[in-house]
């Protein structure tokens, strides 16, 4: 099954959710690594503790096991933007529902849900069965942790090419404003609405594009600062916010603006009517 998601640049991507088999094999690899790590820690504890209190040694071993089981996926998925060793081997990656990279909150929710609800433990076998059921019946093959965190696991090796949808860029006159933007209050929900609007604007009627674009711009400007330059078209402002947010979320482009090349001079080509998405003003 192919899942349409909107990337940070406003590009609709046809991506394939990871299947049960590939996710199970990736999980098996991760479990094997966690088991080896736990065994190594246990041997180190036994060698260091010597003839110390066995109860204290057991308590330390339990704490270390929990840290390995819960901390391994949380730290790796957060630091590698959605991958563990098992997922890397199988070509899988965890992303947000909107296709963007996950943050610490997403990794934390997934890791804790897996530890408490899905892996053999307090709720076994009910939690494990529930996780398998949700994975099997979900349209995007989500487990409980994915449903709680708002994430989906994609099979990158099976992903087709991006579909033709307008690309977000920062017009040259708006580059200084883009670099000064404070986007800390622009949450994932509003960003998702912005990306969805950008991807669908070309199929909307002119009145709908104008109404929805103006309403979305008011919402975006209410949670960002400083205010934009006066007279800038709605389409260019929305595209600037979208492209700049994506740039800051991508380490490889963090040092340069997501900009379209500046025109050569007064005789250079004029910008496309209506801005980067050709939205009527």
Automatic annotation (TrEMBL):
Coiled coil: none
Feature: compositional bias, Low complexity: 250-262
Top-level lineage group: Bacteria
Bias-annotated ranges (Pro residues): 263-274
Domain RDD positions: 18-150
Membrane topology, as annotated: Multi-pass membrane protein
Swiss-Prot/TrEMBL keywords: Membrane, Transmembrane, Transmembrane helix
Any single Gene Ontology cellular-component annotation: membrane
InterPro entries attached to this UniProt entry: RDD
Compartment(s): Membrane
Matching PANTHER family: SLR0254 PROTEIN (PTHR38480:SF1)
The name this protein goes by in its record: Uncharacterized membrane protein YckC, RDD family
Source organism of the structure: Jatrophihabitans endophyticus
């Amino acid at each position: 099954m192919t899942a349409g998601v909107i990337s940070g640049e406003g590009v609709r991507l046809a991506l394939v959710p990871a299947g049960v088999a590939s996710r199970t094999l990736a999980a098996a690899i991760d479990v094997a690594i966690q088991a080896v790590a736990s065994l190594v820690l246990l041997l180190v504890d036994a060698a260091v503790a010597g003839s110390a209190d066995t109860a204290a040694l057991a308590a330390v071993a339990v704490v270390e096991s929990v840290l390995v089981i819960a901390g391994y996926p949380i730290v790796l998925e957060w630091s590698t933007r959605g991958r563990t060793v098992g997922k890397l081997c199988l070509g899988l990656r965890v992303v947000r529902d909107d296709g963007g990279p996950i943050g610490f909150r997403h990794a934390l929710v997934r890791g804790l849900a897996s530890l408490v609800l899905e892996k053999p433990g307090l709720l076994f076998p009910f939690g494990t069965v529930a996780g398998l059921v949700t994975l099997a019946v979900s349209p995007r093959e989500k487990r409980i942790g994915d449903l709680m965190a708002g994430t989906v696991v994609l099979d990158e090796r099976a992903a087709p090419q991006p579909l033709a949808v307008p690309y977000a860029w920062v017009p040259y006159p708006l580059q200084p404003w883009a670099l000064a933007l404070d986007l800390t209050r622009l949450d994932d929900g509003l960003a998702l609405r912005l990306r969805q609007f950008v991807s669908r604007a070309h199929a909307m009627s002119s009145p709908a594009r104008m109404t929805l674009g103006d309403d979305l711009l008011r919402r975006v400007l209410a949670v960002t600062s400083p205010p934009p330059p006066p007279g800038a078209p709605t389409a260019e402002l929305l595209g600037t916010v979208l492209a700049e947010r994506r740039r800051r979320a991508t380490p490889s482009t963090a040092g340069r603006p997501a900009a379209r090349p500046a025109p050569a001079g007064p005789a250079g080509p004029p910008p496309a009517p209506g801005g980067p998405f050709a939205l009527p003003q």
